[in-house]
Design a protein that fits this description.
The protein is an all-alpha fold. It is built from seven helices and no strands. Helix 1 runs antiparallel to helix 2, helix 1 crosses helix 5 and helix 3 (34-44) packs across helix 4 (52-58).
Length: 107
Amino acid sequence: NELMEKRLAEIQRNAPALAQALRGYRTAVTRGETAVADALIAWLGAQPNVSAAAKRYAGIKGDVDHFGALSFLQGLLVMLRDSGHPGLLLVLDEVETIQRVRTDSRE
C-alpha cells in the first residue's frame, strides 16, 4: 500500500479521479470483487453507463469528459515514466472526424 501511494502521489496532483479509480480498482481486485473492478476499468475507458455503485466504491463522481481525458493522459505518462518506459506513441485515426470537419472538407 505504501508503494502504491508513493507512486500515485504525483498522479493525485494532476488527475485525482484517475488516482481514486486506480485505488478502487486495486481494492476491488484484492477483495475479489470482479464486477466492481471491471466497472472501474470501463469508467477509466470512458464507457457510458457505469453503475453509480462502482463509482461510489472508488469515491469518484461523474463520467470522464474531454477535460478529464487529458488529465488521464498526463497521469498515464507519469505511470509509464515511473515504470521505466521512455514515452508513449499515440496514433489518432480519422482525426478530421473527431474535429467535426464538414464532409466536403474531409474529402
